[in-house]
What does this fold into?
Amino acid sequence: MAARTVLILLFDDAQSLDVTGPAEVFAGAALCQGPRPADTYRIRTASLDGGPVRTSSGLTLVPDHALADAPTPHTLLVPGGRGTRRPDPRLTAWLREHGPRAPRLVSVCTGAILLAEAGLLDGRRATTHWAYCDRLARDHPAVEVDPDPIYVRDGNVATSAGVTAGIDLALALVEEDHGRDTALTVARHLVVFLRRPGNQAQFSAQLSAQTARREPLREVQHWITEHPDDDLSVESLASRARLSPRHFARAFQAETGMTPGRYVDLVRLEQARRLLEDTSDGVEKISRTCGYGTPEAMRRAFARTLGASPAEYRRRFCAPGTRTPGRRPSESRTS
It folds into this structure.
């Protein structure tokens, strides 16, 4: 099998991690192949004129090519960053002409804005960094913008949310191209999750809630995340924080922006979704592991928040080896 060329576009004020994160994943996959690295990925970078670019962090990157001389890629990757706010028209024109020729088109963060400017997302479902989803939808009404997932696949086009989501997407592509073992080896080397599924919300429970200012409340937040199957009643959590239940409930909501009960619900739901997606454990076992107690309680939580039963959710996003692609169920963002 011939190596897949991954061409990464470079431009001034690009986000450096949008470039280097996916590049490290693809490079790691090549290293995993031992004496046959040429069978995996051939990574190349290119800027408009072939000259160095200065990223938004001040890091200078030296490309391999000018865009006019760049090899035809299998995977064309467009990073995000401040440089996408007022893109060079020549870059947009190049994407408009050459983007459709790539068998796989990928953006990280606000790189989706460049793809949209070039008309490459029209009629497609896409995402970008949560802070720019409204702008993408407003400026490009032909794009179906989904602000929730960390990445979205629509045919041969894949768009992802901010920074680390580009690593998640790159790992998913490696798993698709070379199997789970290779992707797992890369993930272990980079000390990241093998795969946060693309349908996972950009806001996890920990990001949806603010981090409490006071140490006892922060410790409680961490305890909830690590022990979803424990007694997480207000009384128990208040005792852990050494506060009265009434004082604890008021302070937790004031400092995190949500009630203790809502935070517990989000943590349990997030854990249950991950286990349904990544394991073959039965619903009864998962309901116990995540603190629901019974499959019926877990079913009610899924129906209330995701509009789907655990069994239906698993059919759409099933465990490795039996995975079938699907759309993410709608999810309430209310707290």
